[in-house]
């Protein structure tokens, strides 16, 4: 990631550009670099901010999707932001949903890609055996349609994370919280525009999850990315950015 991490008043984040604000929310083990091509594409027209969600910093007894939503609320108030577009992948989408239900006045629109909140098949149904690099590699590849997207650098990062005992406990705690916190009964409360940008070959949050989100969110659109897994902004950034740009043009420039 070529952008410096800003640290101030207990918050860590990346910021680039000016204009209407896009807030990008990363997944459970998502690196900030997952969003790099989105930042590059939109920073000349929008203010793009990525807060680092404090998965490894919050007290473990309170760690969960609601705690991350509260953190996001504090961050947006600290930055004096409202009417932002929240864009979340995987757990980040789930946090965006929880936040929007509680604080819809802060959010102009929501974009979900491979979001949890209804169902997810994390790590292909089992948590990785920490000591096996090949096993971790296989499970990271499971995230994508094209295994080549799972670069050695990405696999190395995940391997390092799951071999840190403190971090792996927090990952498990966070994953359990996400599974318990099903959003189905709350989605009808979200009346702002929502764009679903989904990999047709997502094995973590499969296509039927996107279809259910589309059915339950009253003001949503569903866009498919072919030959794509759980992270369209990484695997097919040009297509992801095109869908996002069209949505932003519709909701922000009308």
Automatic annotation (TrEMBL):
Pfam family, one: Abhydrolase_1
Keyword Ubl conjugation: no
InterPro entries attached to this UniProt entry: AB_hydrolase_1, AB_hydrolase_fold, AB_hydrolase_sf
UniProt KW keywords: Hydrolase
Source organism superkingdom: Bacteria
Entry's Gene Ontology molecular function annotations: hydrolase activity
Domain AB hydrolase-1: 21-237
Name of the protein in its database record: Alpha/beta hydrolase
Native source organism of the sequence: Pedobacter zeae
